[in-house]
Amino acid sequence: MTNTNRSLSFAHAAALDAADPLAHFREEFVINDPQWIYLDGNSLGRLPKQTLPTLQHAVQHTWGDQLVRGWGEGWYDLPTRLGEKIARMIGAQPGQVICADSTSVNLYKVVTAALAMRPDRAVILTTSDNFPSDIYILQGCAQAAGKQVRVVEPEQLVQAIDSQTALVALSNVAFKSGMLYDAAAVTRHAHDAGAWMCWDLCHSVGVVPVALDDWGADFAVGCTYKYLNGGPGAPAFLYARRDLLPEVLSPIWGWFGEQNPFAFDLEYHPGAGIERFLAGTPPVLSMLAAEAGVEISLRAGIAAIRAKSIAQTGFLWELADALLVPLGFAIPTPRNANRRGSHVSLQHSDAYRINRALIEDEQVLPDFREPDVIRLGLAPLYTTYQEVWEAVQRIRRVTETGAYQKYDTRRSKVT
Length: 415
Ligand SMILES: *Cc1c(COP(=O)(O)O)cnc(C)c1O
Description:
Blueprint: H1 3-7, H2 10-18, E1 37-38, H3 51-66, H4 78-87, E2 97-100, H5 103-116, E3 123-127, H6 132-145, E4 148-152, H7 157-160, E5 165-171, H8 183-192, E6 196-200, H9 212-215, E7 219-222, E8 236-240, H10 284-300, H11 302-323, E9 343-347, H12 351-361, E10 364-365, E11 367-369, E12 373-377, H13 385-400
Parallel strand pairs: 1-10, 3-4, 3-5, 5-6, 6-7
Antiparallel strand pairs: 2-8, 7-8, 9-12, 11-12
This protein binds pyridoxal-5'-phosphate (PLP).
Pyridoxal-5'-phosphate binds near residues 133, 134 and 236.
């Protein structure tokens, strides 16, 4: 057996698991059927065991017994408290991050705010690999402000930033290919041209080191239900650079963003700090669940998580290259670990049906993205190397045998 083959063996995967300093974190998650290989933590993270008693207590004790007094028992300051915890994972000094709303709504807020501070410039610039919902939000903001959205190919981004660019809005990790942008460099280019820079961190927060303050980013948004394991529909977060805060204004003026919500004044005065980006009452239960998820990532530490993510995606990349590329798969995800996030994508003309067969017949749960991509998301807090190895064998099996061909190419509603 050659060295390469040995490094792709099951025994090697088992040895990597045995030596993994984060292995014990898997026990902190609900995993009822270990036969199922879950590779969609980049879409919805697993349920942390701690979330169950946390929610049980919040519902039964705080809501049930304390009723409205719950607001004085840690509900009211949840958006800023949780914001500060997320801040530690995205390289933000205190006072610049809140937890609120959804990523889409937060993007609307910061983009509208940024455009208002560059009234003389006409263009929002983004790339074709950005998440479509982000592009829709940009289009809506542009229409309302009389601006336009320019969508360029990722390779053309830097040359496309010019004196007409008001804002560059990008995803740090591209949702389909898994490509990781050099955020410090792109932010510098945006600033050199006098444009604002906004990062969407949905596919990087909790798994890729993010350094918003060091990058000099102006705005950022991201979600807590992917690698942070906050639960379905968990609230998102929003970052605005501290020195912009005195002048930047949210387009949604609600009482939670007011200087003194309980003064019930009839004139709006924005809060002094980042809380001015809050709008209405926070979803308390969802936020408490998000907090339980965030705590685990903070304890594990982003450096250790990233080290494991690089090792696991590298292992997967090499396995896929050796076993799946010969079966007609291509790997759009960069081979260079510094240029990828924590999922590896596989492209195949029959990707939809192969993905379906993996779920129906092979107990593997990845996801499919139109038109021909299967995404394999690796969540270092609970994904094992043995699962990575086994998943590739199962993908090989359904493809080689043609077992997937019994499925229809008609799409289901949620993929
Ligand atoms: C997951 C994701 C979103 C989700 O936005 P929601 O408002 O939570 O639906 C947005 N942008 C990117 C880049 C994402 O990956």
